[in-house]
Amino acid sequence: MTAAPKAVAFSGAAAFTHREGGTLSVGDLLLDESRWTVHRAGQPVDLSPTEFRLLACLMRHQGSVLSRTQLLRTVWGQDYTGQPQVVETYVSYLRRKLGRLGPPLIRTCRGLGYTLLETTPVNSSSH
Predict the structure, then answer these.
(1) Domain assignment of residue 47, yes or no
(2) Cα–Cα distance between 45 and 109 in angstroms, integer?
(3) Using CB atoms within 10 A of its CB, is residue 111 exposed (0-12), middle (13-18) or buried (19+)?
(4) Which of 90, 102, 111, 114 is deepest in the core (most CB within 10 A)?
(5) What is the pLDDT of residue 83?
(6) pLDDT at 16 (0 to 100)
């Protein structure tokens, strides 16, 4: 059995910040914040700025469940007054774009939020 993902509590003050030179890596997924590029299984993935920020947030908290409210505050900002369903829309965009290159990465935890799953790199020798 695997442990249930843990929920994360953080304030909107911890909103997405662009760190020069930062690279995030989860399994076969690589996000380079200084170049604003994403690669999955060695292939480039074209993302909008919002998709990029959402993916970076999920990668920073990989394995933890992030609520819709947390994602809205972090990715869209404290002052966002639009529809909260925008999170589901952008998660769907990410799933479609990343899913073309490998197994699903983003898991919905009903009633809680979303979590990014770790994938095994393609070159893994653990069989």
Answers:
(1) yes
(2) 25
(3) exposed
(4) 114
(5) 94
(6) 36
Structural domain that includes position 104: 23-116
Q: How many domains does the chain have?
A: 1
d(CA 89, CA 95): 10
User: Each residue of 2-30: pLDDT tens digit?
Assistant: 444 444 444 333 333 344 458 999 999 99
pLDDT of residue 21: 54
CA distance 31 to 17: 14
CA dihedral 125, 26, 91, 43 (to 10 degrees): -70
| First vs last C-alpha separation in the chain | 19
Which residues, 6 or more positions from 45, have their beta carbon under 8 angstroms from its beta carbon?
38, 39, 97, 98, 101
Residue 25 — φ and ψ, nearest 5°? Answer: -140, 130
Q: How many CB atoms lie within 10 A of CB 4?
A: 9
Burial class, 14, CB count within 10 angstroms (exposed 0-12 / middle 13-18 / buried 19+): middle
pTM above 0.85? no
